[in-house]
Amino acid sequence: MTISIKGFAFASVLALSLSPTAAYAQTAANPAPPTLRTTVEQKLAEAPAGSRFGVLVTTLDGEVLLSIAPDQRFIPASNTKMFTTAIGYAELPLLQRTAKGTGVRLEESAGGVDVVLHGRGDPLLSGADDCAVDCLRTLADAVAAKTRHVRNVIGDDSWFPDERWSPGMSWNNISSRYGTGVSALTLDDNELVVKLAPGKAGAAPVLETSGYYVIENRVVTVAGKEEAIEADRMPNSRTLRLTGTVGADAAPMTLRYGIDDPAHYAAWRMRELLRARGVTVDGEPAARHRPLTAADDPANRKGAAATLPVEPAMLAELPPPSLAENMVRINKESQNLHTELMLRRVARNAGSGSIADGQAVMHKVMTEAGLPRTGYDFSDGSGMSSYNRITPRAAVGLLTWIARQPWNMAWRATLPIAGRDGTLQNRFKGTILEGKLFAKTGSLNASRALSGYLTTRSGKTLIFSALANDMPDDDAAQATAAVDRALVAIAEAL
């Protein structure tokens, strides 16, 4: 016989009142089925020693079905993007109404005429030769039609204050595409593309790139197909050192690295496009930033409106892209830069465009959602900051609130689908949850996260958050697998 209290079985209570022989006979004849919590804990115990988990599963109505450390705080990694895109959707009508595309103008000066590119937070501006929409070359054409001689090309990203990296982001991520600089003037995802083709064994591989960085190619081609290439670049340096090995039989590959001053890079690319159109450009590309000041923190403005620079008329402007469409890419791909730009767009409508202004909007919306302030703490919008914290209860609370919003299905469509697309494309394949789990992933150092919605065997839709921290980084994949097995067990049981 099993006594059940709120879904938790306690066969041991009866066993204590029996003799050892009788207790063993009773257990052998009628083995008590494990509770759902026991099953989940057994799955999580398969993770590396030292791993710390928090799990909360509820119905859409808020009934708690499973709870493990729901109020402990965890580094959420890219689960942060759920919160940022949620406030993006909450503010979307205003954001889309005030959105502007990249502009260009001619600025008179004592030495001649300068070309000034004005960024307005557009994440999709492209400098590619085969660009079809949102193209930098459209602005270059407008300048070339107006003048054939300019002095300098200046990239102006003062639409936002100069906060290229958020507090708490690891410095070693700066050189990677995941930690590229954040700027109101963004071009080609602020990534430097390097195409690499292996050479003959013993020789260096062949590199093809734009020329914006000086590349020290110390990679050696070896026999086989494996590659082990390391990149090293000091912050604010334009010298990129590549070392390591690449197999002679490896396929050509595309490598991507971060750019520290995106406004300068956009000006550099604009100069190249102008010269290709026969425009003489005398000077070097330059960047114009708006330094971060105390006034960019709403706490220091004490309710006063932010003072923003007034822009002159533009020679030409590109139409702003759809912010809703961009949020699909943010959550499906876990695109860091675009998330940071979304936070700053929200922040500029509320104040100066600073991270602090974005945090103020976050607090406002999360308060409306009923989340306690102790349930979340963010230093960025994307989850690259190791300062960020959330609880499973806060994540589930957010998802419950979203489910009641008029835009909930549009937001849910931005989430990766298990076994189908995005960052969940290769997870849950062949399980009961393939195609039936919609969730945001998260991965940062010794942190893994997965929060969203799932459909059980019986057809119920549940809300869940599973957060893992403190596992040995080399074994993080085992923690991810343990969480996946636990979620499959939940779906099968309910």
Helix content: 25-40%
Give the strand content: 15-25%
Mean residue pLDDT: 92
CATH superfamily of the largest domain: DD-peptidase/beta-lactamase superfamily
What does this structure look like?
This protein is of the alpha+beta class and 494 residues long. It has three domains: 1-32, no CATH class; 36-94 and 322-493, DD-peptidase/beta-lactamase superfamily (Beta-lactamase); 100-317, no CATH class. Helix content is 30%, strand content 23%. It is built from 14 helices and 22 strands. The strands form seven sheets. Strands 4-3-22-21-20 form a five-stranded antiparallel beta sheet, with helices on both faces. The protein has a five-stranded mixed beta sheet with strand order 16-8-6-5-17. A hairpin with a 2-residue loop joins strand 1 and strand 2. Helix 4 (80-90) packs antiparallel against helix 9, helix 9 crosses helix 10 and helix 10 (336-350) crosses helix 11 (355-368).
Q: What are the main properties of this structure?
A:
494 residues, alpha+beta, Beta-lactamase, 3 domains, 5-stranded antiparallel sheet, 14 helices, 30% helix, globular
What's the SSE blueprint?
Elements: E1 4-5, E2 8-9, H1 11-15, H2 20-29, H3 36-44, E3 52-59, E4 64-68, H4 80-90, H5 92-98, E5 103-109, E6 112-118, H6 136-146, E7 149-150, E8 153-156, E9 191-197, E10 206-209, E11 214-222, E12 227-232, E13 239-247, E14 253-258, H7 262-276, E15 280-281, E16 286-288, H8 298-301, E17 316-317, H9 323-333, H10 336-350, H11 355-368, E18 376-377, E19 389-390, H12 392-402, H13 408-412, E20 437-444, E21 447-455, E22 461-469, H14 476-493
Parallel strand pairs: 6-8, 7-15, 8-16, 11-13
Antiparallel strand pairs: 1-2, 3-4, 3-22, 5-6, 5-17, 9-10, 9-14, 12-13, 18-19, 20-21, 21-22
Helix pairs in contact: 3-14, 4-9, 4-10, 4-11, 9-10, 10-11
